[in-house]
Amino acid sequence: MTDADIVIVGAGAAGLSLAYRLTSPPARLGEASASRGGRPAPRVLLIDAPPGPLRPPERTWCFWERGQGDFDDVVVRSWERLSVRGPDGQEWESRPHPWRYKMIRSRGFEEFVDLRLAGSSLVERLTATVDRVADLPDGAQVTATTPDGEQVLLHARWVYDSRPRRELPPGRTTMLQHFRGWFVRTDAPLAGATAPFAEDTACLMDFRTPQPAHGLSFGYLLPLGPDRALVEYTEFSAAPLSRASYDAALEHYTTQILGLGPFEVRDTEQGVIPMTDARFPRQIGRHTFRIGTSGGATRPATGYTFAAVQRQSLAIATAYRRGALPAPPQAHSRRSLALDAVMLRALDSGRVAGADFFTRLFEQVPMERMLRFLDGRTSVREDLTIGFATPVLPMLRTVAEMPFLRRGAS
């Protein structure tokens, strides 16, 4: 049996971020020095899934941040201007200073963290499939199987499991944010007076796409250079589409709506993100926890996860160093989750039309305030002003019915 202070199951964004924070110097945790009487840095065992279906494909993580951040070395591109387009083509563009919208590719992030962890004597890596995590009186035991079939028993004081849940917890409303993106390279420059978009502006939502009968759809466009961009088609609805349907939607968006002209698809990405008001228990035993999306880090109304993962990881590492219970905190405030639940229900019930709902928000609310709202940093008064920018009567009707809705199996 192998012993460690902490075992982290899964080496995706949440697992790597937690390992990075746990082995960082105290100053990087926002402390001048380790707390008196606190714990030294832990011995960490990070379990990677073997190559195959348990390892997700390369993907893109985007987030907004003030000024410089810990991972700027691997930021592929950032934008200080953001825009939203309504169904009729009207555009709302803003420079929400001091926020910048940043893009990281998972491979670059993994290489960055791998390099830091390789230089630490505190971290051990193991490639294995985790079969069982069991809580014990003095810690937890992890049973895993290596690629050559050897069974390994691991004992740790604390275990953090970042693997996706097999089933979502029951919620009153559950939708999916599903998307497919093309990394395109065009024959002609994308920037300029006659170009379909500005190179220095990220378009978060473009509602000129045909809207589905249930939910909503939009284009998402991140310029990566004078002749390169990531273009995605996204839906909020009950079920994912076929690959052929995504590609048809992307073909229509790039050629008919954006008017890109001739281009080559250099790479693709595709994903599904849960949008639900389900409660995600983070502590599953006295010494075992869930982190990342399975620990409630995904914001229900938007699907953004990366920034919340960093907050969660930092809080765990700080609590551990201080000798406190290193439990993952709730990634989003109760008020934010309650507002998200109302929005999801109003959208899923059809009381509000998704494209009109979001267009109206961005038309009436400054982008800087919207970003703070989505990050859970707005005051109650600001939340009320944002609420008045939505269809008030349908939203109030939804608020009234929320206490009577049952959390059913999703």
From TrEMBL:
Enzyme class: isomerase
UniProt keyword annotations, A-Z: Isomerase
EC number: 5.5.1.19
Domain of life: Bacteria
Pfam families named among the record's database cross-references: Lycopene_cycl
Coiled coil regions, renumbered to chain: none
GO MF entry, a single one: isomerase activity
InterPro entries, A to Z: FAD/NAD-bd_sf (IPR036188)
Protein name according to UniProt: Lycopene beta-cyclase (EC)
Species whose genome carries this gene: Streptomyces globisporus
